[in-house]
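hey
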């Protein structure tokens, strides 16, 4: 899998936004993902919270057709004009909105676009939600075999122990 910076940033930022706690500092998350000019006002925070709920559907659905439909709806809302950019000395890459757009528009575009590119390049199988009961965390599956099932090793271990206990004969 080849990623340039926005192709990697988009899906990773989508994961971080979907997994963010209700009290999380969204501006800090944007800064962590190298979003330029990340300043958010209260309205921007509210819009990005509901955008994160919309992004979640792209991870939760298992059917490729349904996933494409979900991401197409995100693109309808987020994408502007497709154009090439070389900002910050980076190799030419595609942006879905102009750099002078406000931060909310840029975040929508990079997350929707990132999920779209990833889905197109990976056969639609690399977005997932944790298999452990009660865990709602989502992930991008960058494993070699593409069979990741858990958000973290911790959830995987927890489930393995629970299965082991369940399989033991009762005394
Ligand atoms: Zn860029
Ligand atoms: Zn988990």
């Amino acid at each position: 899998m080849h990623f340039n910076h926005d192709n990697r940033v988009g899906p990773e930022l989508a994961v971080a936004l979907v997994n963010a706690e209700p009290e999380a500092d969204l501006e800090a998350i944007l800064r962590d993902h190298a979003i330029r000019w990340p300043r958010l006002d209260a309205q921007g925070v509210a819009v990005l919270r509901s955008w994160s709920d919309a992004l979640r559907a792209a991870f939760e659905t298992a059917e490729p057709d349904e996933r494409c439909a979900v991401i197409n709806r995100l693109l309808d809302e987020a994408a502007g004009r497709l154009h090439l950019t070389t900002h910050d000395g980076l190799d030419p890459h595609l942006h879905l909105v102009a750099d002078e757009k406000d931060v909310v528009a840029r975040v929508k575009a990079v997350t929707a676009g990132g999920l779209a590119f990833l889905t197109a390049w990976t056969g639609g199988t690399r977005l997932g939600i944790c298999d452990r009961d009660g865990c709602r965390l989502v992930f991008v599956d960058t494993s070699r075999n593409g069979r990741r099932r858990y958000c973290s090793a911790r959830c995987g271990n927890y489930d393995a122990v629970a299965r082991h206990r369940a399989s033991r004969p009762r005394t």
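Residues 5-6, 85, 87, 93, 95 surround zinc ion (ligand 1) (CB under 6 Å). The domain at 5-129 is CATH 1.10.3300.10 (Jann2411-like fold).
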